[in-house]
Amino acid sequence: HDAIYAGQVEDLRLNANKLDVNQLREDTMHKAVSGTLRGKQKLKMTKFDSEVYQTSNDNLGYVYIDINGWERPSSIYEKLHGWNITKNKAASLYKSPTAPHVFNVTHDDGSQISVQDKIMISYYRTDFNAQFDSLPWVDIIGKPENIAATFPDGVVGQWIPHIIDNTQIQNVALNRKSSVSVGNQVFTHDNGQTWTSNTFTIDAVKNARTLAANEQNIVIIKHYESMSNFSESSQNLVVLGDIKNVYASQAYLNEYGNRLQSSLVGKVGKRNSSAYFQEFLSVSKHTFFSPNQTLGWTSREGDEPKHTGVSLDAPNDRSPGFKALYSCAKRNGLLYLQFH
Predict the structure, then answer these.
(1) Which value, in Å, is the radius of gyration of the alpha carbons in the chain?
(2) Is the per-residue pLDDT at 84 higher than 80?
(3) Out of 107, 120, 138, 328, which residue is the most buried by the measure of CB atoms under 10 Å away?
């Protein structure tokens, strides 16, 4: 604008130096619990050409990920579900704590892994630049060997680690919390020679869809909307203000911590119709690492933060749950909500 006329415009900006950090922490936490914070994420891609190049003690293998093509997870504790196509076995992958662009891979049953075993992995790529608050998510259902035959060069989407049982109808859980009740899908029974498209209904509580029996060779590409994560792994930051509460939830509703649970631990809460599916718990004890005022504790018993007892009930629907201690933290002059 060329000019602002006196008395007609009110400046609503706040001086960050005068903010009550405790009130800011609680206000932001309420937004996190209700799922209204804005997030951003990319889509994943599933690839089949990663080979084990070295092994250790027979049951640990090492896979090198293309330095220009893949983004690594932000934590060495983040497990990725994969599949050994050579041996037809479920596998788990973790980022190497020492070697860049290397993943440690083991079979879920602890059996031997060999050099040149081909590993299927779903992961984020550095050359996927688009990021979304509401993700046009893609899940893939099918046997790994059929998916690889259908998409030999890879496919946008994340494999659902579920092997189809051809003898009975099954509920297959989606990889992410769906924000819609109906999704779109395409599927093939002949490795992509022909395709059929239709819609599918998503169970809002179980976050799953029903899969019919006798679908031995099917490969399904499922499209649905899912809200992105609004948190990411970080180093322990300097705490500002008080340490007051721990939040716990296992609810299926976004407004009761479901999106926060997905963002922090990658699990989708499924608890329904309970008075005990979310709560705030008072912190009764915590410690600071004094030199830099970060929240911390050692491995010695009794040194950890303590809070009042969790009263979430035992779910009858196999729902995962979580709890997180939250605080206001500062980095590079900016304030953040920090979770432990």
Answers:
(1) 23
(2) yes
(3) 328
